[in-house]
From TrEMBL:
Family: Belongs to the pyrroline-5-carboxylate reductase family.
Domain Pyrroline-5-carboxylate reductase dimerisation, chain residue ranges per copy: 159-261
Annotated compartments: Cytoplasm
PANTHER family in the cross-refs: PYRROLINE-5-CARBOXYLATE REDUCTASE, PYRROLINE-5-CARBOXYLATE REDUCTASE 3
Protein name listed in UniProt: Pyrroline-5-carboxylate reductase
Reaction it catalyzes: L-proline + NADP(+) = (S)-1-pyrroline-5-carboxylate + NADPH + 2 H(+); L-proline + NAD(+) = (S)-1-pyrroline-5-carboxylate + NADH + 2 H(+)
Record EC number: 1.5.1.2
Length: 269
C-alpha cells in the first residue's frame, strides 16, 4: 500500500527513525521526494542512497511541509520538539510518552501513539498503535500503510497495551538474545567451543522463528506437542516449567512495562 502525502520524521537520524525511513523507502511505499528528515546535524548519511530525501535541522519547517509527522526522538528530548501541528497527523514512536503529553507538545488532535523497532529497516518490525478520537479513517489507512511497509501492525484500544508492547516487542533482539546467550553459556560450560555454540544457537533461533511464523499451530500448541512426544526436549521443557520459567519471564516483562510507563515522564533511559 502506497503512503499518501509527505511524511516527515523528527529524529530521523536516530536508530528507530532511520530504520523506519529506510524500511519505507526500500519497500517502495514512499518516494524519496515525499520524505523529510529532521536531525540536529542537518544531515542524514544513512539515507545517502536516496538523494531525493529532504533533510533539515528545523523541526517547524518539517511540520509545515509534511502531511504526517513522525516523532522519533529519545523521550528525554521530547520537550524540545517545538512544533505547532494542529492540522497534521502526528505519529509518535517515543517510548512512554502518553497521548495527553503528545497533544501538549504538538498542538495536534489527530495523534497516534505507536511502538516499533529497528527491525523496521528489514521490514520485520511489529508496530502496534493507538489513535485519538480525532484520527479519521483516512488517517488510519495512512498509519497502516506506514507501519505495514516495515512489518506487521495492529491497532489497539488501550494505551497501557502500548507500554506492554514497548516492553515485549520494542527491544530487538532483547529478551530473545538473553535466552540465546543463556543457552550458549550452557553449551560452553559443557565443553562446546564458543564459536560452535554460537553458530548452533543462532541457527536454532533462526529456524525456530521461521517455523513458528509459518506454522498453523500456536507456540503453546507446539510446546505441548513436544511434551506429548516425550523425548529429550520434553524433559527440558518439563524441568523449566517446574522451576517457574513462565513466572520469571512474566515478572521481567512487568518490570520492563513499568519502566516504559515511566520513561516518558521522568526523562530517563
Amino acid at each position: 500500500m502506497a503512503i499518501e502525502g509527505k511524511v516527515g520524521i523528527i529524529g530521523g537520524n536516530g536508530q528507530l527513525g532511520s530504520a523506519i525511513a529506510r524500511g519505507m523507502l526500500a519497500a517502495g511505499a514512499l518516494k524519496p521526494e515525499d520524505l523529510w528528515i529532521s536531525a540536529r546535524s542537518g544531515r542524514a548519511p544513512a539515507l545517502a542512497a536516496w538523494p531525493g530525501v529532504t533533510v533539515t535541522a528545523d523541526n517547524a519547517a518539517l511540520a509545515a511541509a509534511c502531511d504526517t509527522v513522525i516523532l522519533s526522538v529519545p523521550p528525554a528530548q521530547a520537550g524540545a520538539i517545538a512544533i505547532a501541528a494542529p492540522d497534521r497527523l502526528v505519529i509518535s514512536v517515543m517510548a512512554g510518552v502518553p497521548l495527553r503529553r503528545l497533544g501538549d507538545l504538538t498542538g495536534a488532535a489527530r495523534i497516534v501513539r505507536a511502538m516499533s523497532s529497528p527491525a523496521a529497516e528489514r521490514r520485520l518490525a511489529y508496530s502496534p498503535w493507538l489513535a485519538t478520537e480525532a484520527v479519521s479513517a483516512r488517517d488510519r489507512d495512512c498509519v497502516r500503510a506506514i507501519f505495514g511497509a516495515v512489518g506487521l501492525t495492529d491497532e489497539v484500544t488501550d494505551e497501557d497495551q502500548i507500554d506492554q508492547f514497548t516492553a515485549m516487542t520494542g527491544p530487538v533482539p532483547g529478551f530473545v538474545a538473553l535466552f540465546a546467550d543463556a543457552m550458549i553459556r550452557h553449551a560452553e560450560a559443557r565443553g562446546i567451543a564458543p564459536q560452535v555454540a554460537s553458530r548452533a544457537i543462532r541457527q536454532l533461533f533462526l529456524a525456530s522463528s521461521t517455523i513458528m511464523d509459518e506454522a498453523d499451530a500456536s507456540p503453546a500448541e507446539q510446546v505441548r506437542a513436544m511434551v506429548d512426544y516425550a523425548g529429550t526436549t520434553a524433559a527440558g521443557i518439563t524441568a523449566m516449567e517446574a522451576l517457574g520459567l513462565a513466572d520469571v519471564i512474566s515478572r521481567g516483562l512487568d518490570a520492563a512495562a513499568t519502566r516504559a510507563r515511566m520513561i516518558g515522564l521522568d526523562g530517563g533511559a
